[in-house]
Design a protein that fits this description.
Elements (H helix, E strand, L loop, with lengths): L5 H15 L25 H14 L9 E7 L4 H14 L16 E6 L10 H10 L18 H4 L7 H7 L3 E9 L3 H4 L18 H5 L20 E5 L27 H8 L3 E4 L2 H6 L5 E5 L21 H13 L5 E7 L1 H7 L3 H21 L5 E7 L2 E2 L1 E3 L38 E6 L14 E2 L26 E2 L2 E4 L5 E2 L3 E6 L9 E3 L2 H8 L2 H9 L27
Parallel strand pairs: 1-7, 1-8, 2-17, 3-4, 3-7, 4-6, 5-6, 11-14
Antiparallel strand pairs: 2-16, 8-16, 9-15, 10-11, 12-13
Helix pairs in contact: 1-15, 2-14, 3-13, 4-14, 6-15, 11-13, 12-13
Amino acid sequence: MRFLTAGLACSLTLLCAACASSGTSTAGHVRPVDVPPAASRADETAQWWYRSGAARAAGNGAMGGHAKNVIVFLGDGMSLTTVAAARILEGQRLGGSGEEHALSWEQFPNTGLSKTYNTDSQTPDSAGTMTAVATGVKSHMGAIGVSSGRRFDCEDSRQRHVQSWLRLASDAGLDTGIVTTARLTHATPAATYAHVPDRNWENDVDVPDEARAQGCRDIAQQILDFAPGRGPKVLMGGGRGNFLPAGERDPEYDDKVGQRLDGRDLTAEWRAANPGGAVVWNTAQLRAARDADAVFGLFEPDHMQYEHDRNRGDDGEPDLAEMTRFAIERLARDGKGYVLLVEGGRIDHANHEGNAYRALDETVAMSRAVQAAAEATSADDTLILVTADHSHTLNFVGYPTRGNPILGKVRGRVSEDDDPNAYALDATGLPYTTLVYANGPGYTGASNQQPAGPKVHFHKPSSFEPSDGRPDLREVDTEHPDFMQEALVPMRSESHGGDDVGIWARGPGSDAVRGTVEQNVIYHLIVQATPALRAQLCATGHCNADGVPVDLPVMTPVDAPLRAAD
């Protein structure tokens, strides 16, 4: 997947950087980029998405950016309602009424909105959305690093590989890193390094035989597909099982083993490719690896634990803020610039599970991580961008009085004569919570797992019975971490929402973050604001006369696993 040899790339990068330093491009005043109108979906090709995204970013002035480093925070499923409710929760935990509080990124100077739909779906999934954020090209539901096509068609997808800003940064000689609380092979992190038409192909067991015969490879092994010395210096998250061979016992849990049937131990292959690196699986090991050249942290066989549930001891797992500080310290060490993805991955999972407590708690944990990044970097040289991939069906309802517990039942007036300190009642005379879900497992009818009434986390039933009215919540502790908010429509898993999500930014180029943009524009805002990234694209012939990257880079699929020498 290399475009040029390292030496030639370096020479052309320097030449292109010198060219870009003259003329109008560094001032951000570039001529408008012409984009042909898309008369139909057939006209929305990968190149069209790429060029149209470049046009919007350049029109917003992103070419005036001069970021040395980029940190992208992605709150998976972090809807605007989730942000607002988490803001209040953190404010109330700090002793205030909550509404006046602000999460760390809400103090950033520049904001915008992102339109999240996939090419084939009004309400999107995390794979297609993160592919848009990471590559500048919108794609289908389930797509990981490939442009829009048929989801399960391996052969077709091999002609549609698209390059992420993480791989672009690696080619440009910058350091890179990925931090997530989900599996490292899950949709958001995977879209920065892997290429498959179906997000579920996380390890070799998951790849259909036909797809394997056509040359498609699982997501986990693609984490090794970097030129020597160019791979991520920091990889941290969950998902050990996808990297270890079947039969090999998990280092933490006696009852768990690796999941790979191809016999490969990808952690051992990573060690061989990174002789000065360390593979770690708990907090103590991570802290002991501070001086390692590279770190591969796999803290759980599956997703990492929720912040509320995690083991905070040395034999447990670090929180997102600690992983973020560690990553920044390591990536900044060599001084050549870096690109880092940090994902609050479990916000999404808690929303799917109909449990607002954990969704908000995970959002607050990400706020601490963003604050840690802001304190560890300078707005003079580091662009920090915070966004989400998609929304959820969490709703903020009623007329609760100022300072009412965000996870509590609504107390407040519906009419002028109401007592503001009494429970607000529905039309049947029953109280209700401020936060509810439009659908999901919190439906109050009896399920095959729990009786009728309020549901308790964790609840993932396979069947429901119709509810007989609403439950009486007066004696129910709705602020308990395991309380599940009521859901209108019974579903095994709550769904995503199709509404816009926020973008918040500070640092060089962040003033281009404004207005409502297509989600793939985020890639172009990042690339255009970072001279090393746009220079790499210019060096490989993908820029126009003003130095704006407008032509989609073509990638050649890797046909064989890149194994380190024994």
